[in-house]
Structures are given as structure tokens and as C-alpha cells.
């Protein structure tokens, strides 16, 4: 391999110089790097050791705390013993084992659909579904605050891409009305938007879409699965629009507690996707232990009503606690298991983030371009396994950190 | 006044609220370079233009539009 040359030389890395300079300036102030945290030990879904300090985890998306569930772990160990460490193959060649079939059966039962297709990550599920469903001459209509995997699915495909203002029913309706009536359209929505933790007004959006011809609707329930709806299917179930949604995309890396992605649907031709969807075909399938843990977790999530109730309680309590302290949050009312604290600038955001870490609390720091409207966020995601005592400690740590940094009075 | 000039004037009126630096607008003014707009500003502006002219400027088209003149041409074409 070549050796790196002096930084003055112009090469393909030169476009990253402003970002490198910004990060160097920030780290020169003595703060820890928010994007280089290492968990030395993980004690439970809610506790880890970071740099020798026991830390409460409040930024993991591990909503239902399934990562250490004894049944889930046992299923993974058994599959590892019986089927080996990996499949070394594509789902359509040598990479479909009994476990892949079983996890797809579990998904079909969980969602009550006729088809389920498992991808290696949630990112690939959106990438694959969107780029494959919408082809040349078709339209993808998406919310401006959509996740990167939805945007990347658009860029991978050949369709025309149209954005509407975040969660604006009127804007969606207007844009659909301007598209050619005979063109085929895929409208992509999310149940929960992960940056601010706000929920989509799906009944109104679905009604707006159904006024226009030739539309199919895909809802990403990455942050809704496990938590919303009587069966934990997602926001679309809770809001009663199941009959109007054509595709649900989701992930195993949040409530399910492992890694992987999926799409479920009742479309009679859905199975052809396995042959034409490149992010499904041209990558290795999930390891046997992963699909075994996912299948076990999904089946347990079907009857997790008590956990859901405790998670709601945690979310409401943290939202109220932080509001009472004077923090500005992403939503006026708690809408999901995500509570986003909005801060004025990067310096303040990193200062509180670090103060919290030193007190023993990990949250996600998020910055543009991942965040809407150029905001800097400390994003908290609650877990059903956070105890009442931990939520109390979390609020106490936010109070101490907020006062130290001067973000609250 | 030609149709094109009318479109230019309407586009200029839509740019005004986003033109924080008061840059003089010509056909050659670039959105990223001269106006220094970030992607969020571009998104808000595109939505405003779409509503003003009752058109859709897809993201595919937006990728090809760098100057005010190119936007005026695109609007003229889309209005048909």
C-alpha cells in the first residue's frame, strides 16, 4: 500500500478537509469525541462500563431490552453450535438456513401478513425495497426528514424523487396532485421520526394519498415496532391504518435487540422481490445465531404488553422531568420512546453530552446533516428495562449537567 | 416584458427571503457558491418555488440546477 503524503497535497480526501478541521478544533478544546465511544463491558440492556465507569445507557434504541433476554441468548447459542458462525452466502444461493425461514415465519405471524423478507440490515431493507419497487418513470414521494436509508434507496434507484415538508399532509397532497395521474408512485412514510421522536399523522396522510391514483404506501416502523399498537406492530397499527399500508419495513436492531432488517407485505407478487432486489441478493445473509435470536425475540414481543406499559411510563416521566427542568424538547408531549433535547450549538451540545458522560449517563449526540433544521440534539431513547430508580437518576444527572454548562437556569 | 423575464422576477422574489447576504442576482448567480445555501435552505426554497409556480422540481432535476438562470429555464419548461 502507498504511504500517506503531506496533507497539503490535493487528492480525493481534500473535500473532507473542512470536516477534519472542525473536528480537530472541537477536540482541541479538550472534550471527548462523541463519535468514538467504546463500551468496554455491557452489563445489561441499560448499563455498561465506559472508561472504567458504570454508565446508564440512554441512547441505544434497545427499546424493549431484549438483548440479554435469557431465552433469546439461549436460542442464539444453540444456533451457533448447530449451524456455525456464518452462512458465507447470499439468501438466494447457499445462505438460507432453517433459521432464516423461521424468522420470516415469526415476522408473518407478528405482522399478520402473507409475506416477509429478511435483509442483512434495516438500512439494506429500505435500500432494497425503495430502489427495486420504484423504477424508471415511477415516482418516490418522501418526507423531507426521512432517514438516510430512505434517501439512499432513492439515489440507488432510477425513479423520480419528490420531497414534501415534514409531516405536512397538505404538502403531500399538493405534490401528489401535480404528478402525472398515470405514473406509478411509492409514498414512503415513517411511523416515528428518529431525530425528534415525533410520530406521523398516518390516518390523515393515508387519506391524502388515497385521493390520488396509482399510489402504494410503504411505512418504516424501525422505531415503532415493539412499542406501538395492541400487537406491537408499530404506529400504523396504533393509528388504525393497517388496511391502507402496502409495505412495512423494519429492523431487528432496535426493539428486537440484534441486527437485520425486513419488509412484510400482503402483495400477491411480493416473493419475486427475492430475485430482483439487489441489496437482498448480492450480500451475505445473517448468521444463524442472529436469526435465531431475532425469531425468539419477535415471538416474545407479541405478548410484551407489560413492558410496553412500563416503557410508556418511563417516556412520559422523563419528558415531564426534562420539561420541568427547563430543557427544550423535540416534541411538546411525549410521542414515542425517543426524547430529544434541543440545544443551541455544537459547543453547548458537546459540553452537556460530556458532563452527562462523566456523571455516568450515555446519550446520543446528533448534529446536522442528520438532524432537522440544523439543530444540535442530545437524543435519549428509553428502554422498558430502565427502572423507576434509573429514570430518577437520569433526571438528576440532566439537572446537574444542565446547570454546570448553563443550559438551564 | 417577456415570459422569461417574468419568471426571473418571480424567482428573484422567492430568493429574497433566503438571500441573507444581499447578493446581487444575475443569471449566473449560483445557489451553493454565491448564495452559500446549505441543503436545508435549498429544500425550503425549492418547496416555495414549487408552490409559487404549481410545479414539481424532482430531486433528480435539482441535482442539475446550479444557477439562477438554469432554474428559470427549468421553471419555464415545467410550466409548459
Automatic annotation (TrEMBL), chain A:
Domain of life according to the entry: Bacteria
Keywords: Pyridoxal phosphate, Transferase
Record-annotated Aminotransferase class I/classII large domain positions: 54-395
Pfam family, one: Aminotran_1_2
GO MF term set: pyridoxal phosphate binding; transferase activity
Keyword Transferase: yes
Reported cofactor(s): pyridoxal 5'-phosphate
UniProt cross-references to PROSITE patterns, sorted A to Z: AA_TRANSFER_CLASS_2 (PS00599)
InterPro entries reported in the protein's UniProt record: Aminotrans_II_pyridoxalP_BS, Aminotransferase_I/II_large, AON_synthase_class-II, PyrdxlP-dep_Trfase, PyrdxlP-dep_Trfase_major, PyrdxlP-dep_Trfase_small
Similarity section: Belongs to the class-II pyridoxal-phosphate-dependent aminotransferase family.
Record-linked NCBIfam families: SerpalmtaseAlphaP, SerpalmtaseBetaP
Name this polypeptide is given: 8-amino-7-oxononanoate synthase
Organism of origin: Sphingobium wenxiniae (strain DSM 21828 / CGMCC 1.7748 / JZ-1)
Automatic annotation (TrEMBL), chain B:
Sequence ranges assigned to domain Carrier in this UniProt record: 2-79
Pfam families associated with the record: PP-binding
InterPro entries reported in the protein's UniProt record: ACP-like_sf, PP-bd_ACP
Lineage top rank: taxon: Bacteria
Protein name: Acyl carrier protein
Record lineage: Bacteria, Pseudomonadati, Pseudomonadota, Alphaproteobacteria, Sphingomonadales
Amino acid at each position: 500500500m502507498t504511504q500517506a503524503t503531506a496533507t497539503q497535497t490535493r487528492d480525493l480526501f481534500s473535500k473532507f478537509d473542512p470536516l477534519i478541521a472542525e473536528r480537530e478544533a472541537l477536540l482541541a478544546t479538550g472534550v471527548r469525541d462523541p463519535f468514538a465511544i467504546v463500551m468496554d463491558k455491557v452489563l445489561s440492556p441499560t448499563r455498561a462500563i465506559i472508561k472504567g465507569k458504570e454508565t446508564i445507557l440512554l441512547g441505544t434504541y434497545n427499546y424493549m431490552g431484549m438483548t440479554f433476554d435469557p431465552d433469546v441468548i439461549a436460542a442464539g447459542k444453540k444456533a451457533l453450535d448447530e449451524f456455525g458462525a456464518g452462512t458465507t452466502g447470499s439468501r438466494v444461493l447457499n445462505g438460507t438456513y432453517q433459521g432464516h425461514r423461521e424468522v420470516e415465519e415469526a415476522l408473518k405471524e407478528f405482522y399478520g401478513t402473507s409475506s416477509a423478507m429478511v435483509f442483512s440490515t434495516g438500512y439494506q431493507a429500505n435500500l432494497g425495497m425503495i430502489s427495486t419497487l420504484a423504477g424508471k418513470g415511477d415516482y418516490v414521494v418522501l418526507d423531507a426528514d426521512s432517514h438516510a436509508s430512505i434517501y439512499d434507496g432513492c439515489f440507488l434507484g432510477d425513479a423520480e424523487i419528490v420531497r414534501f415538508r415534514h409531516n405536512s399532509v397538505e404538502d403531500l397532497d399538493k405534490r401528489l396532485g401535480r404528478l402525472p395521474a398515470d405514473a406509478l408512485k411509492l409514498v414512503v412514510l415513517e411511523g416515528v421520526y428518529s431525530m425528534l421522536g415525533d410520530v406521523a399523522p398516518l390516518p390523515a396522510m393515508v387519506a391524502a394519498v388515497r385521493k390520488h391514483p396509482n399510489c402504494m404506501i410503504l411505512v418504516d416502523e424501525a422505531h415503532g415496532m415493539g412499542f406501538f399498537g395492541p400487537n406491537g406492530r408499530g404506529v400504523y397499527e396504533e393509528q388504525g391504518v393497517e388496511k391502507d399500508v402496502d409495505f412495512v419495513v423494519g429492523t431487528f436492531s432496535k426493539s428486537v435487540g440484534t441486527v437485520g432488517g425486513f419488509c412484510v407485505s400482503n402483495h400477491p407478487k411480493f416473493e419475486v422481490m427475492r430475485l430482483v432486489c439487489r441489496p437482498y441478493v448480492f450480500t451475505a445473509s445473517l448468521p444463524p445465531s442472529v436469526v435465531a435470536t431475532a425469531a425468539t425475540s419477535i415471538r416474545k414481543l407479541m405478548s410484551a404488553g407489560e413492558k410496553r406499559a412500563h416503557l410508556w411510563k418511563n417516556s412520559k416521566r422523563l419528558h415531564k422531568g426534562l420539561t420541568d427542568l427547563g430543557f427544550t424538547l423535540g416534541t411538546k408531549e411525549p410521542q414515542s420512546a425517543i426524547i430529544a433535547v434541543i440545544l443551541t450549538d455544537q459547543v453547548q451540545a458537546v459540553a452537556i453530552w460530556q458532563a452527562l458522560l462523566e456523571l455516568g449517563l450515555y446519550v446520543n449526540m446528533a448534529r446536522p446533516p442528520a438532524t432537522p433544521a440544523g439543530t444540535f440534539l442530545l437524543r435519549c431513547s428509553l428502554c422498558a428495562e430502565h427502572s423507576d430508580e434509573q429514570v430518577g437518576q437520569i433526571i438528576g444527572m440532566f439537572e446537574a449537567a444542565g446547570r454546570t454548562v448553563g443550559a438551564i437556569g | 416584458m417577456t415570459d422569461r423575464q417574468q419568471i426571473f422576477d418571480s424567482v428573484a422574489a422567492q430568493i429574497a427571503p433566503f438571500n441573507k447576504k444581499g447578493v446581487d442576482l444575475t443569471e449566473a448567480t449560483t445557489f451553493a457558491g454565491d448564495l452559500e445555501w446549505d441543503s436545508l435552505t435549498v429544500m425550503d426554497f425549492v418547496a416555495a418555488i414549487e408552490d409559487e409556480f404549481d410545479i414539481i422540481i424532482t430531486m433528480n432535476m435539482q441535482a442539475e440546477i446550479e444557477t439562477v438562470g438554469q432554474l428559470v429555464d427549468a421553471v419555464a419548461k415545467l410550466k409548459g
